[in-house]
Write a structure and sequence with these properties.
The complex is a heterodimer of chains A (90) and B (554). Helices cover 18% and strands 28% of the residues of chain A. Chain A contains two helices and seven strands, in the order ββααβββββ. The radius of gyration of chain A is 12 Å and the shape is globular. The mean pLDDT of chain A is 88. With 554 residues, chain B is an alpha/beta fold. Chain B folds into three domains: 181 residues, no CATH class; 80 residues; 240 residues, Rossmann fold (3-Layer(aba) Sandwich). Chain B contains 22 helices and 22 strands. Chain B has a seven-stranded mixed β-sheet. In chain B, strands 2-1-3-4-7-22 form a six-stranded mixed β-sheet. A three-stranded antiparallel β-sheet of chain B has the order 8-9-10. In chain B, a hairpin with a 4-residue loop joins strand 3 and strand 4. In chain B, helix 7 crosses helix 10. Classes of the chains: A alpha+beta (90), B alpha/beta (554). At the A-B interface, strand 6 of A face helix 8 of B.
């Protein structure tokens, strides 16, 4: 099944400049693995120690998966994933 | 620095300069510089400030302030026109003065480093005898990152100053009436803490993203339901829950409580810097020689190499200031680049906010935890003049990149640590982040009394000033190294920055800026700064708007 993924500008060098890509999988984790096959190097930018990287937010529809089931969050056809760099400073 | 004399011609009629002068004199005293002030009866709007060596060599900074609506701009006018008031007021219900003389105090630190850097350049053969500094430059430096975010072509940030909801931002209040700050360095402890209080994951996520906006946007929109829950528990109950979850809370110290801090006296007399020569035994006959300036060099730190391993604001700001004085700064970033390069909004392919502090630096991607990476850093250090980091306490030793490790390969090195709590690093067991430091230091208490906010400011006041003090400390050490025949360990901290901002209140001799109504002058749309008749001279726009230089020759 196809899930639409919105890619932030900062990662587009890895996706041949595509703003939106399609992938498939039952969980966010599956999708990240499949993205890595299509766009090598992207997984390292998203995941650190088996969790979403501290400076990256992954939203399933409008909810940050970090505060749900994390990478094990289930996805279904028609869902949209948005990857956004976190806003941070200090 | 007891071979230096600071000469200032100051007219008491120059009321606009009073807080700046007070801060400048206080800093000179801390640096053991002799001060000679001459009172003049004429107010010209320009203060010539001269730093003189005993051999007669000297450097002058002509400090100016704009003249608007028939008078010279003092602190409040400067906060109004540079957008600082607007940034501070984003989370407030009205447009308000910041509560401390932020621009005057940071300007004193900037002018002091221009003077010392100028003399440093003179000793190295520069022919330049004076430069200009306008107090608005300190304000524009302070709002630099917010200005970058507001002035990009796509996705520019826009906030209505004075239209916030102060009850939806920190500090929080417990049911026994204690005001406190809360900090979580990662989302996990935040989630554990709020789940324990019964908050839904959806709200926890919403709250986290709101809370994270403090650092970059000076706002903190958190669901009211979460804030209300905090007010149902006592402070000790909250402390226990914080401890169990891994978040941190600290109460807002009153000024009187801060006055009883036994380490305060040293900070107030010796200043927020610690500058110590390396152990002579380590030098092993090594001789420090600072290279002379190239004949055509116009900036005083030209030819000086700085290696920076810094994240976020404080450390990068220090490196940025050193580049503005002419130093070559090599910035170490993790493989793939600093993730904050992606923080929106972007200017081209880089975060505008990030770029504003780093655009003049060279970048080397190095994995500092790997053996090869450490060797690469040591190779850079061997030929560098300065190394600066703002790692968490203890990390330098853990990495094998502490001062003692680096001095072995370069005894002339100036090793600078831009930290959170400074000398109190080992005693204060809460993270030394901007808002925790404001709460702990009494600065938040001052701002809540004078700045129209319920606690500290959400403008990152101590991060930015901490960075300015860190570069000042490096400049002092570079100057001292000319004759000391050794390198130095240099330390500065956010707590030192907060203390200097609070100084006049801590000493009960506040030279309060005059209370004018500056409503007419307030710039609340930062993107309009670049066309402001007084400010456009100091700004340049290229993808986004930024302060164009610090070193302005006469």
């Amino acid at each position: 099944m196809s899930i639409l993924i919105h890619i932030p500008t900062i990662l587009r060098a890895l996706t041949n400049d595509q703003k939106k890509v399609n992938s498939s999988g039952d969980t966010v984790s599956d999708i990240v693995e499949n993205l890595e096959c299509d766009f090598p190097g992207i997984k390292d930018r998203l995941i650190n120690n088996k969790e979403v990287h501290g400076f990256i937010n992954i939203y399933l529809n409008d909810e940050d998966i970090r505060f749900g089931e994390g990478l094990n969050t289930q996805v279904k056809p028609g869902d949209a994933i948005t990857i956004l760099p976190a806003v941070a400073g200090g | 620095m007891n071979n230096l004399t600071l000469r200032v011609c100051f007219s008491t009629a120059d009321r606009a300069f009073a807080p700046f002068m007070s801060a400048l004199v206080s800093q000179a005293e801390k640096m053991d510089i002799e001060i000679i002030t001459e009172d003049t009866s004429v107010s010209t709007g320009v203060l010539p400030i001269v730093l003189q060596r005993t051999n007669g060599d000297q450097f002058t900074v002509d400090v100016s302030t704009p003249y608007i609506q028939g008078k010279f701009c003092g602190e409040r006018e400067l906060q109004a026109i540079t957008g600082l008031m607007a940034v501070h007021s984003r989370s407030l219900g009205q447009i308000s003065y910041l509560g401390v003389d932020y621009i005057s105090v940071t300007a004193a630190s900037l002018v002091m480093q221009l003077l010392i850097a100028g003399l440093f350049g003179r000793v190295r053969g520069a022919t330049i005898l004076r430069c200009n500094f306008d107090l608005t430059q300190a304000g524009l430096l302070a709002v630099g990152q917010y200005l970058a975010g507001a002035s990009v072509d796509y996705g520019a940030e826009s906030f209505l100053a004075g239209n916030g909801e102060p009850n939806k931002r920190p500090p929080f209040r417990s049911n026994d009436g204690i005001l406190f700050e809360l900090e979580s360095l990662s989302p996990k402890p935040w989630q554990i803490f709020w789940r324990d209080l019964g908050v839904s994951d959806k709200d926890i996520g919403k709250g986290w993203h709101g809370f994270m906006q403090r650092y970059a946007k000076a706002i903190s929109p958190i669901p009211s339901s979460m804030i209300n829950l905090l007010s149902e528990l006592s402070f000790s109950q909250l402390q226990e829950k914080a401890h169990l979850s891994g978040i941190y809370i600290t109460k807002l110290c009153s000024l009187d409580e801060r006055k009883s801090d036994e380490k305060l006296a040293a900070l107030l007399t010796k200043g927020p810097w610690q500058i110590e020569p390396h152990d002579a035994a380590l030098l092993n006959g090594y001789s420090t020689v600072t290279a002379a300036l190239r004949a055509n060099a116009t900036q005083p730190l030209a030819g000086i190499t700085v290696v920076e391993s810094c994240r976020r604001i404080q450390g990068p700001m220090a490196g940025h200031l050193l580049t503005l004085l002419g130093a070559t700064v090599i910035r170490i970033e993790p493989p793939g680049g600093d993730l904050l390069r992606g923080m929106p909004p972007l200017a081209g392919d880089c975060s505008a906010r990030f770029d504003a502090l780093n655009y003049l630096k060279q970048v080397r991607e190095i994995d500092i935890k790997s053996v090869a990476g450490k060797a690469e850093i040591m190779a850079l250090i061997k030929d560098a003049d300065v190394f600066i980091h703002n790692w968490a306490p203890g990390k330098a030793a853990q990495l094998g990149l502490d001062c003692s490790d680096m001095v072995k390969v370069n005894p002339a090195l100036i090793y600078a640590y831009a930290g959170g709590w400074g000398k109190s690093d080992n005693e204060i067991d809460i993270p030394g982040t901007d808002f925790m430091v404001q709460a702990y230091s009494g600065l938040a208490d001052i701002i809540s009394q004078h700045g129209g906010s319920p606690g500290g400011t959400l403008f990152t006041a101590t991060d930015l000033f901490g960075g300015i003090l860190a570069s000042q400390a490096v400049v002092i050490a570079l100057y001292r190294r000319l004759t000391a025949n050794t390198g130095f360990y240099v330390e500065s901290s956010l707590l030192g920055a907060a203390t200097l901002l609070s100084e006049s209140y801590l000493n009960s001799n506040a030279v309060l800026s005059e209370h004018h109504d500056v409503k007419d002058l307030v710039v609340d749309d930062l993107s309009s700064l670049s066309s402001h008749p007084v400010l456009e001279l100091f700004l340049t726009t290229n993808d986004y708007t930024r302060l164009d230089s610090l070193w302005r020759m006469s």
